[in-house]
Design brief:
By secondary structure, this protein is α/β, with parallel strands linked by helices. Helices cover 32% and strands 22% of the residues. It has two domains: 150 residues, VC0802-like (2-Layer Sandwich), CATH 3.30.2130.30; 115 residues, 3-Layer(aba) Sandwich (Rossmann fold). The chain is elongated.
């Protein structure tokens, strides 16, 4: 399958390196996204283990359209039944930039009707209850080029599930992980964050140190899809749980002058299961000493 991992602009090279390390094939970076090939198990791996990706999409079609008829006809030809079951709840999201088709509500309506017609032909039914699993279909139209994707992630991948408390300007987890990966830090070196806030950079570093997959303790929209019929998600989760490293020394140190954000940082570290390798303290920058 052709897949796409989106990311913040500027992080394409970091994400590409992650995909390469995970042995995905046909990796090709574009602005804000990296394309790659995968099977269903690989989709589960990408969602659970990529640290800088925002979402993982299955690419369904790419075509040009300047009329609503062209949009409808090309969408209807897509074999949606390969992924969407007869009870699926279909949610269509559209974005359009510099294109003739600029009415978002109209595009959403047309794409939804085309999907229903396509599925209706395959399942031989006229009405869809949409009471089953949710299927987010994302349509990106750029300069009349239409890309239709199936979102396998659901909520964005930066939502690891550990940050229940954030500061006034929290750093996104995916960006924090990219900062760590682009730095000179490695698992054998001490890392000090003297203005750590709620600890996002240190927590992301600790997850790398302990080899904890960032999405291990959250859920994903595609886990409920019948197409994942061979326990792909449970197999992948079990694998990443088995490779967590627990025998680590404290090598990460964070401090902040604000006691409330340090309390939040400690809480977040416990939720992320990395509190054993991070030492947080309330301290002025002037009073910091190297451990």
């Amino acid at each position: 399958m052709n897949c796409t991992a989106t990311c913040s602009f500027g992080l394409e090279s970091v994400l590409s390196a992650e995909l390469k390390k995970m042995e995905f094939e046909n990796i090709a970076a574009e602005n804000g996204r990296v394309n790659f090939s995968s099977d269903l198990e690989g989709i589960a791996k990408a969602n659970i283990n990529l640290r800088t990706a925002e979402r993982i999409y299955i690419e369904l079609a790419v075509f040009n359209a300047v009329t609503f008829d062209q949009l409808f006809d090309n969408t209807e030809r897509i074999p949606f039944h390969k992924y969407i079951d007869r009870y699926g709840a279909i949610v269509v999201n559209v974005s359009s930039v510099s294109s003739v088709l600029k009415s978002i509500p109209n595009c959403q309506s047309i794409v939804k009707k085309a999907i229903i017609k396509s599925l209706g032909k395959y399942y031989k039914i006229d009405t869809f209850p949409e009471t089953g699993a949710r299927y987010p279909v994302n349509v990106f139209i750029m300069k009349d080029n239409v890309r239709i994707y199936l979102d396998t992630s659901g909520s964005s991948l930066y939502k690891r599930g550990y940050r229940k408390r954030g500061g006034e300007a929290p750093l996104k987890e995916t960006l924090a992980s990219a900062i760590v990966q682009l730095s000179y830090w490695n698992k054998n070196r001490i890392l000090i964050d003297p203005f750590c806030g709620t600890g996002t950079i240190l927590i992301e570093a600790a997850m790398i140190l302990k080899n904890i997959a960032p999405g291990l303790y959250r859920d994903f929209v595609s886990e409920r899809w019948p197409v994942f019929s061979n326990n792909e998600w449970s197999k992948v989760r079990q694998f990443y749980k088995s490779v967590i490293k627990e025998d680590n020394k404290v090598r990460l140190y964070g401090s902040d002058i604000d006691s409330s954000v340090i309390a939040a940082a400690r809480h977040n570290a416990r939720k992320a299961k990395v509190s054993d390798v991070i030492n947080f303290s309330v301290r002025d920058f002037k009073d910091i000493t190297v451990p």
